[in-house]
Design brief:
The chain is built from 8 helices and 10 strands. By secondary structure, it is α+β, with helices and mostly antiparallel strands. The protein has a domain of 70 residues: Integrase, N-terminal zinc-binding domain (Arc Repressor Mutant, subunit A), CATH 1.10.10.200. The chain has a 4-stranded antiparallel β-sheet. A 4-stranded antiparallel β-sheet has the order 5-6-4-7, sandwiched between helices.
C-alpha cells in the first residue's frame, strides 16, 4: 500500500491510550453493546458487527471474561444502555481531514463537544461527507515484529492465503489490509495461525496525507486528538495528518 504507514501515524496517540486501558475497555464495551443490539444477536458467528468488535477487543488485550459479560449485559431485556452511532467530519490545522466516530446517549452533548474541540485548536467542524470521500473503509490488522520472530515472506504468504488484499511492511510492524467484508475471515485465520495483533479493526484509511511541519500546527493537532480521544463518547478519530 502506498503512502505513510498508518501504524506510524497513530503510535503517538496509542501510547496515551495504553496508559488509559480502563477507558479503552469501556469504549470497546460500548461498541460491543451497540453491535449486539444492531445485529440482533450475541453470537459473533451470526453477527458480523459483533465479530469485528470482539476482534478489536482481543487486539486491545481486553480479557475474555470482560467480553463475555458485556455481550450478556447487552442481551438482557430492559438494558438501559441506549447508545447510537454518530459520525462527524471536519478539518484540523492546514486543512487536515478528520473523521470522528462516536457512540453516545446524548447527541446534542457530543455534537457541542466535538465542535468545541475543532474550534479550540484551529480547526472547524464540516458537513457530512466533506472529507469522508478521501478515505477508504478497510479492515486493518497490525502485527508487531519487534523481536524479529516473524519471517517477512511467511507473514506475506499467510496474509494473502487468508484473503488479505495488501500488506505493508514498515520496520517492526506488518500492516495487513482487507475489505470490510473480508476482515473477520482474515483476522480469524491469522489468529488461528498463532499471530498476535497490535491492532485489529475496520478503519477509515486516508487516500493521501498532509505533512505538518509548523510547531503550532503540530501542537494544535496533537492537543485536538488527545482531547477527542479522552472523550468517553468518541470511539475513534481518523485523520490524514503526518507529523
Amino acid at each position: 500500500m502506498a503512502g505513510h504507514s498508518k501504524w506510524k501515524n497513530i503510535q503517538r496517540t496509542k501510547g496515551a491510550q495504553d496508559a488509559k486501558r480502563a477507558k479503552v475497555f469501556t469504549k470497546i464495551a460500548r461498541e460491543i453493546i451497540v453491535a449486539v443490539k444492531e445485529g440482533g444477536s450475541g453470537d459473533p458467528a451470526k453477527n458480523s458487527r459483533l465479530a469485528a468488535a470482539i476482534a478489536k477487543a482481543k487486539a486491545a488485550n481486553m480479557p475474555n471474561d470482560n467480553i463475555k459479560r458485556t455481550i450478556e449485559r447487552a442481551g438482557k431485556a430492559g438494558n438501559g444502555d441506549n447508545y447510537e452511532r454518530v459520525t462527524y467530519e471536519g478539518y484540523g490545522p492546514r486543512g487536515v481531514a478528520v473523521i470522528v466516530d462516536a457512540m453516545t446517549d446524548n447527541r446534542n452533548r457530543i455534537a457541542a463537544e466535538v465542535r468545541l474541540n475543532f474550534d479550540k485548536y484551529n480547526g472547524n467542524l464540516g458537513t457530512s461527507g466533506c472529507v469522508s470521500w478521501s478515505f477508504d473503509r478497510k479492515g486493518v490488522i497490525v502485527i508487531g515484529n519487534e523481536d524479529g520472530k516473524h519471517n517477512e515472506e511467511t507473514v506475506l504468504n499467510d496474509a494473502l492465503e487468508a484473503g488479505a488484499d495488501d500488506i505493508e511492511i514498515d520496520e517492526d510492524v506488518y500492516e495487513i489490509y482487507t475489505t470490510p467484508d473480508g476482515f473477520i475471515a482474515v483476522s480469524g485465520a491469522l489468529e488461528s495461525a498463532g499471530y498476535n495483533f497490535l491492532s485489529a479493526q475496520i478503519e477509515m484509511v486516508p487516500q493521501n496525507y498532509i505533512t505538518l511541519t509548523d510547531p503550532d500546527d503540530i501542537k494544535n493537532m496533537t492537543k485536538m486528538l488527545e482531547l477527542m480521544e479522552d472523550n468517553d463518547d468518541i470511539q475513534d478519530v481518523w485523520h490524514n495528518a503526518v507529523f
